[in-house]
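Lab notebook, bench 4. Still working through the backlog of constructs that have no structural model yet. Next entry is a single chain of 64 residues. Request: give me the structure tokens for it.
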Amino acid sequence: MMVAYILVAVVGIAALVGTLMVAGKADADYSTATKGNLTRILLMYIILGIIVIIGAIVVCIYLI
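Model written out:
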């Protein structure tokens, strides 16, 4: 089970880094609003992380 947690963390971090790398290579209209776009993307990752943590806790509770 610990391997699954590590794998999820690694994939999440890789997705975050990839998103931030791609965000710097956008068209002119996108780069003018980069701060707002990155803020929204970051909020999505935070919300997704919270959902994953809650889901993992619920799964652990029902499996134990």
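Notes after review: The helical segments are 2-23, 28-32, 34-63. Residues 1-63 form one domain. Flag for follow-up if needed.
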